[in-house]
Amino acid sequence: MRRTLAPERRDCATRNPDEFAAFLESVYGARLGVRAPAPAARPYRISCVATPAAVAGELELPGTLGFAAGPPALLVVSTLLAGHVTVADGREEHRFGPGHTFLSGRPGRPRTARTEDAAVESLAVPWTAVQAAAHRTGPCSRRPVRFTGLAPLDDAGAGIWRRTADFVRRSLFATDPRPAPLVLAESGRLLAATALAVFPNDTVPAPADRTEGPDGTSDTLRRAVAFIDDNADRDIGLADIAGSVPVTPRALQYAFARHAGTTPLAYLRRVRLAQVHAELQAADPAGPVTVTEVAARWGFGHAGRFAAAYRAAYGASPSQTLRFRAGD
């Protein structure tokens, strides 16, 4: 996509996945194939604003779409507003839900993705800007920056990215007055530096033990996962999990981000959700067990958030699982 000094806005709305893929290629500069197993009830939409320093996009992807993409031409960071996205990056596969922020790809690595009724906000910066930011922020060889995970190092980092992204998006989409060229240029440098600080990469010294075992996962991750699996019924938090390894909380978050594409507390919630699911499946629908009771026992106190997380994970409500057990 040609980028002038002034912000350039482009929009696309189509039900044709090939047309949509061609438009995305023109925006993000990467070879892309899109497959839709069935016609979408609503058109695929994207609104984007591009400058030489950054590209901001808002995408609506109804139904289910499959993407096959070559190595990305830009560093693209996405925040999922609704739906789900599964990204397969090399041998790693990551599934993201509403509220998650993640890299849509890494340099030099083709990837595939699947979206399910997704609404996405994205910001993209040239790889040259990321490389320049790495040289400015510390010693770095001339080789390309290598990101080692798609998810932020921790929840705090994800929050930093979202606040930075909100500021930049407001600048890019502003029409009255138009942002000054210097502001636009600085916004791209700000995004590049923030991405290096937030997402795991080889320009930032590892915060702790990065020793990997024969299966390619870290000792830190294996020990933490074992502790969580054995103690999910207890009142444990980040400090307890880190202390069981033992490593610092930041080192623990790094290990989960790099090797599992998630956070320790998100994994803990997933384990507890699986326990709720198992108990509801095993319960007698005519007996005294209630969804509220089981959810509370596993630490889910907010009924609305629990129900939404359960449905996203299992495709049914907790009460449906209790009433209609598998095999009944």
UniProtKB/TrEMBL annotation:
UniProt protein name: HTH araC/xylS-type domain-containing protein
Entry keywords, A to Z: DNA-binding, Transcription, Transcription regulation
One Pfam family it belongs to: HTH_18
Organism, scientific name: Streptomyces polychromogenes
PANTHER family per the UniProt record, alphabetical: HTH-TYPE DNA-BINDING TRANSCRIPTIONAL ACTIVATOR EUTR, HTH-TYPE TRANSCRIPTIONAL ACTIVATOR RHAS-RELATED
HTH araC/xylS-type domain location: 222-324
SUPFAM superfamilies tied to this protein: Homeodomain-like
Annotated InterPro entries: AraC_XylS_family_regulators, Homeodomain-like_sf, HTH_AraC
Keyword Transcription regulation: yes
Domain of life: Bacteria
Transmembrane segment boundaries: none
Keyword match Transferase: no
